[in-house]
Each structure stands twice: as C-alpha cells, then as structure tokens.
Amino acid sequence: MAKIPIHIKIRKKSNPFDKADEPYFEKRWTNSWKKEATKKKKTLWLLQEGKCSRCKGKLEFEDELHVHHIVMKCLGGNDTLSNLELMHGVCHRQLHATESA
C-alpha cells in the first residue's frame, strides 16, 4: 500500500510576502525539497548551498533544475559528485549555447 504524505500546516499568522517570515518559509521549502528531490540533486543542492553554479542565484523548488557534467561523459567524465553541478535549466542551456558558438 502506498504511503500517504503528511502535510504540515503553515503557521496561522505567517505571510510569505513579509521579510520577517522569510526564514520560516525558507526552512519549510528546504525541508520539502529535501524529501522530494532525487538523491544526487539533493546532495548537489546542499553542497552548493542552494545556489546555481553558473549565475549564483537561488535554486528554487519550482525551478527547472539541471545536473551538468563539468567534464562531458563523451570526453571521459563520470557521474561522481565532483564532476557534477546543479544549475537552472536556463543557465544550463546558455552554457551549452556559448560552448558551441
């Protein structure tokens, strides 16, 4: 039988648009992302402190996230964490577009 997800209610007086409540929502987001992300993406996200390796912007749960091989597999690269970076999908596409130009 499938496990039923448990949802934690948001604090009654919390406002996602209030700067004072930002740490609270950041912690909620981080905890939910840790549960749902793949193991490699989660580990990369933690190693990179939640920042894109290219633009250094914040990696949000809703973002399209890509894992990039620093040394391409066709050139002898591998899937170890030391050869991987987590970045926004747009940043990844831009990186490969500028490499081929």
Shape: globular
The strand order across the widest sheet is 1-2
**Average residue-wise pLDDT:** 82
At the fold tier of CATH, the topology name of the domain at 38-100 is His-Me finger endonuclease fold
Helix content: 25-40%
Q: Low-confidence runs (pLDDT<50, min 5 residues)? A: none
What's the story with the biggest beta sheet?
Answer: 2 strands, antiparallel
Give the CATH architecture of the domain at 38-100. Answer: 3-Layer(aba) Sandwich
Q: What's the total count of β strands?
A: 2
Q: What percentage of amino acids are in beta strands? A: 5-15%
Separate helix tally: 3
Content-based structural category: alpha+beta
H/E element order: HHEEH
The rounded Rg comes to 17 Å
User: What is the highest CATH level, the class of the domain at 38-100?
Assistant: Alpha Beta
The separation of the N and C termini measures 51 Å
Report on the structure:
- The protein has 101 residues and is an alpha+beta fold.
- It has a domain at 38-100: His-Me finger endonuclease fold (3-Layer(aba) Sandwich).
- It contains three helices and two strands.
- The chain has helices spanning 22-36, 39-47, 89-100; strands at residues 65-69, 84-88.
- The chain has a two-stranded antiparallel ribbon with strand order 1-2.
- The model has no long low-confidence stretch (mean pLDDT 82).
Characteristics:
101 residues, two-stranded antiparallel sheet, 2 strands, alpha+beta, His-Me finger endonuclease fold
Write the SSE topology.
Elements lengths: L21 H15 L2 H9 L17 E5 L14 E5 H12 L1
Antiparallel strand pairs: 1-2
In short:
With 101 residues, this protein is α+β, with helices and mostly antiparallel strands.
